[in-house]
């Protein structure tokens, strides 16, 4: 089904920034590989945005290209860079890529069948009268935006997640004024997950004044259709060819190919999100000899976890030392990592530092030479296609897994010295304050066909998907993908290669191909990949495709509280405080699927909490000895204790204030509180291992940690504090060890107590259950960060009853309430849907020596 019609396009709005007279410090000489620090960025003057408050559906649609209309080629600026010695690339005999054999030995994973059947596989834009299309797209919680080049610049379409067109196709410059009313293309679209906003961009220049611009549009709201846009035009000193953007906490980072060398920019993201005047800052990186077209690529943030505080923006490029005059090295080449540390208040303090040289296995950038556009063959024609060997391909994806950070990317390489294109992919990792290093790399070229124009991404579980173009003398230009599971043998793509769409004709009228494709990850589940690229259907004019797929084992939802067998239902752990006996009920609504004992433990030991410490989605048990302070974890599988280990001894007056996932790695961490000083420390856990510890600041001892829950839906636990003497209540919204936001949520009379936290409405955010034990009244606050979305009574229960636990006992995704009668031991469940009791019933009578843990 074709969902996007053929189109033509143009640009965007903004007010030109004026570049200041400050100049950067002298950089290193071209060709040098030694790290340097360039100080003092070139800063623009403030750029005031134009504001579009309308609905995109009210704008005129883009004019579709039809046969006989002109065809335009988007220019790629090439600036010849001679080697210092005046020679060409160092000669080398044909060689086999050293990673090919590793891939040849890769097994086909058992998940191949599920992964290789796209959930959605549809046409996107069709031919718009230009080449190349520069196909790009990104996905948000409710929308997908695809962009391509068109007759005048860039065009875009906004769809929902089921491919229904909501608006478009539109020319981007229908939003624009000034220079950006005449866009020239090279579109980029990004979803900014931290802000729940969208960014679209293209470049522009004035054919008369030769003014150059980056035209940047930031949505005013999460709704890209009717929520309005802020429109910025940032002037650049040279034509900003091949711009690539990245979302980062302190800036939108941009890279370009320019006359004076590869340039990097930082745009004031905070001001842009507010619709305020914003500045940009610029550095240039040293040029590499040999490549006439060259640009770095910025690292773009994916996932709920933001980078550690004050992390610089990262940029990367690859360096084949045989091609770039650093001397022939037959065994290794390099990935260069650069750091942009921006200070928008004082540009003189900004720095651009690098390169950090990451040694990788030898690759070969001399692919049909270093500058030729003519390379990869097609059936039935002598016309070949552009390999684009000069850049690390879109995107360089960044993730923070809590215990480590990752950068994932890819580039094209000659795999055997015969101009045979294959994809070199890589994953870098960084732990704590350490430097980036190579974690794994691979080369994907399983047969004689050429694979290039790749885009790679990692889901929230660490699995990867790699999409790309493929062509040969017997394969028309087509789109395929492969992937690997986290835990597979390093360096191997283990998933069966899947064809998204097979080409049906060669492209004979131009050599241009790409210039990029886009693999995105849906932030709604952090599991679903969305890939878009071009291919050639019958007729020989390019079209684009959009495919959606995921690994079936990927699951980034938080584990269900007290779920011992990973069936998404809470269970009940009983402990006999007199004998030390322990007994487990595996629940299914009001019924028990199974019951049985687990190992008894002496009464000097208490259960401090239940949590999934090892990430297997099964509750484990944290024990503490009340006399010695010794702390032990039992790793559980249902009724079975798999193993156990001491994780240390912590004496009084430290208490376990709660368990929760502070860093978003889907593993429980431990919050310790000193009841004498008010100090608070988090142990970030991985099984029995304390990955690291950190103070999260103090709270006066008159405040109690009343509960841990994810109040803002970022998959990281937050802290609810209550002051018993006044009834004041405060939430700390946490990101690892950092209090990102704190605020009062009001005061509740001291007669009320926090009965528990749980997601009562299924929106992925913790809510607060309040109980007045004197009157028996019960109220739920449905929370959204620091705000209450709704509040409501859920009925009264007399004071002989207490709330023993909040959990999802029926697997509905909504929290239920477990009641216990303090006199009779009768136990009762309310199965809830928000404020409504769907089903209630007794689940048994248990002696009062037995307590719910």
Q: What is the helix fraction of residues, given as a range? A: under 10%
Instruction: Let me know the number of strands.
Output: 59
Return Rg in Å: 29 Å
What class do helices, strands and sheet pairing give? Answer: mainly beta
Supply the CATH architecture of the largest domain.
7 Propeller
Give the oligomeric state: single chain
Largest sheet: 9 strands, mixed
> What is the mean pLDDT?
92
* Overall CATH class of the largest domain: Mainly Beta
The proportion of residues in beta strands is over 45%
Sequence stretches where pLDDT stays below 50 over 5 or more residues: 1-32, 83-91
Cα distance spanning the termini: 54 Å
Counting structural domains, the number is 2
Q: Give, in spatial order, the strands making up the sheet with the most strands.
A: 1-22-21-20-19-25-26-27-28
Structure notes:
This protein is mostly beta strands and 853 residues long. It has 2 domains: 480 residues, Methylamine Dehydrogenase, Chain H; 281 residues, 6 Propeller (Neuraminidase), CATH 2.120.10.30. It contains 3 helices and 59 strands. The chain is elongated and about 90 Å long. The relative contact order is 0.09. The N terminus is likely disordered.
């Amino acid at each position: 089904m074709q969902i996007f019609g053929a189109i033509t396009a143009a640009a965007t709005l903004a007010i030109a920034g004026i570049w200041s007279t400050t100049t950067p410090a002298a950089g290193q000489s071209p060709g040098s590989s030694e790290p340097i620090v360039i100080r003092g960025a070139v800063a623009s003057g403030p750029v005031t945005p134009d504001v579009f408050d309308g609905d995109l559906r009210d704008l005129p649609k883009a004019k579709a290209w039809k046969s006989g209309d002109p065809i335009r080629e988007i220019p790629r600026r090439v600036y010849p860079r001679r080697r210092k010695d005046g020679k060409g690339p160092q000669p080398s005999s044909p060689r086999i890529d050293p990673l090919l054999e590793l891939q040849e030995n890769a097994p086909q994973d058992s998940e191949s069948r599920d992964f290789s059947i796209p959930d959605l596989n549809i046409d996107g834009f069709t031919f718009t009268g230009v080449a190349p299309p520069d196909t790009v797209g990104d996905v948000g919680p409710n929308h997908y935006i695809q962009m391509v080049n068109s007759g005048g610049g860039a065009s875009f379409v906004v769809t929902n997640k089921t491919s229904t067109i909501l608006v478009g196709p539109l020319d981007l410059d229908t939003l624009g004024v000034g220079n950006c009313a005449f866009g020239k293309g090279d579109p980029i679209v990004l979803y900014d997950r931290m802000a729940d906003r969208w960014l679209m961009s293209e470049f522009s220049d004035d054919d008369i004044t030769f003014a150059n611009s980056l035209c940047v549009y930031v949505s005013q709201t999460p709704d890209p259709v009717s929520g309005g846009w802020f429109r910025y035009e940032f002037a650049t000193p040279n034509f900003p060819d091949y711009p690539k953007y990245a979302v980062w906490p302190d800036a939108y980072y941009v890279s370009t190919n320019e006359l004076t060398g590869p340039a990097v920019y930082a745009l004031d993201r905070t001001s842009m999100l507010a619709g305020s005047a914003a500045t940009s800052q610029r550095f240039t990186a040293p040029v590499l000899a040999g490549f006439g077209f060259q640009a770095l690529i910025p690292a773009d943030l994916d996932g709920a976890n933001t980078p550690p505080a004050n992390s610089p923006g990262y940029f990367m490029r690859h360096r084949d030392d045989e091609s770039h005059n650093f001397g022939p090295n037959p065994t290794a080449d390099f990935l260069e990592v650069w750091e942009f540390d921006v200070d928008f208040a004082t540009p003189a303090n900004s720095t651009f530092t690098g390169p950090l040289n990451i040694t990788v296995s030898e690759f070969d950038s001399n692919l049909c030479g270093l500058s030729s556009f003519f390379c990869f063959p097609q059936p039935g024609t002598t016309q070949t296609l552009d390999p684009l060997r000069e850049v690390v391909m879109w995107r360089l994806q960044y993730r923070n897994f809590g215990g480590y950070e990752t950068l994932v990317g890819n580039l094209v390489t000659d795999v055997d010295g015969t101009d045979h294109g294959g994809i070199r992919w890589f994953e870098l990792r960084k732990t704590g304050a350490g430097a980036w290093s190579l974690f794994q790399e691979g080369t994907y070229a399983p047969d004689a066909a050429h694979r290039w124009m790749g885009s790679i991404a990692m889901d929230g579980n660490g699995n990867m998907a790699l999409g790309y173009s493929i062509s040969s003398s017997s394969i028309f230009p087509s789109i395929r993908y492969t992937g690997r599971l986290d835990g597979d043998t390093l360096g191997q793509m283990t998933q069966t290669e899947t064809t998204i769409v097979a080409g049906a004709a060669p492209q004979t009228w131009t050599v241009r191909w790409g210039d990029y494709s886009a693999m995105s990850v849906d932030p709604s589940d952090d599991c679903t990949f969305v890939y878009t690229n071009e291919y050639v259907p019958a007729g020989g004019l390019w079209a684009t495709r959009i495919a959606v797929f995921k690994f079936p084992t990927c699951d980034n939802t938080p584990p269900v509280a007290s779920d011992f067998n990973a069936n998404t239902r809470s269970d009940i752990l009983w402990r006999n405080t007199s004998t030390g006996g322990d007994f487990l009920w595996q629940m299914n609504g009001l019924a028990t699927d199974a019951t049985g004992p687990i190992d008894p433990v002496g009464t000097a030991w208490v259960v401090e909490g239940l949590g999934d410490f090892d990430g297997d989605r099964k509750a484990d048990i944290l024990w503490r000895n009340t006399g010695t302070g010794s702390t032990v974890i039992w790793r559980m599988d249902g009724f079975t204790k798999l193993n156990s280990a001491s994780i240390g001894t912590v004496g009084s007056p430290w208490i376990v204030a709660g368990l929760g996932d502070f860093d978003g790695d889907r593993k429980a961490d431990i919050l310790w509180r000193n009841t004498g000083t008010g100090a608070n420390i988090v142990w970030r856990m991985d099984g029995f291992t304390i990955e690291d510890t950190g103070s999260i600041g103090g709270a006066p001892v008159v405040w109690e940690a009343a509960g841990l829950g994810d109040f803002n839906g970022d998959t990281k636990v937050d802290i609810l504090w209550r002051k018993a003497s006044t009834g004041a209540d405060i939430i700390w919204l946490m990101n690892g060890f950092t209090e990102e936001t704190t605020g009062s949520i009001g005061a509740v009379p001291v007669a009320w107590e926090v009965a528990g936290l749980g997601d009562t409405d299924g929106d992925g955010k913790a809510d607060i259950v309040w109980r007045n034990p004197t009157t028996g009244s019960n109220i739920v606050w449905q929370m959204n960060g620091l705000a209450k979305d709704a509040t409501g009574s859920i009925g009264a229960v007399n004071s002989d009853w207490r709330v023993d636990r909040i959990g999802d006992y029926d697997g509905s995704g909504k929290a239920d309430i477990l009641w216990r009668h303090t006199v009779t031991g009768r136990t009762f469940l309310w199965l809830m849907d928000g404020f409504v009791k769907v089903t209630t019933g007794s689940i048994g009578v248990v002696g009062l020596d037995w307590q719910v843990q």
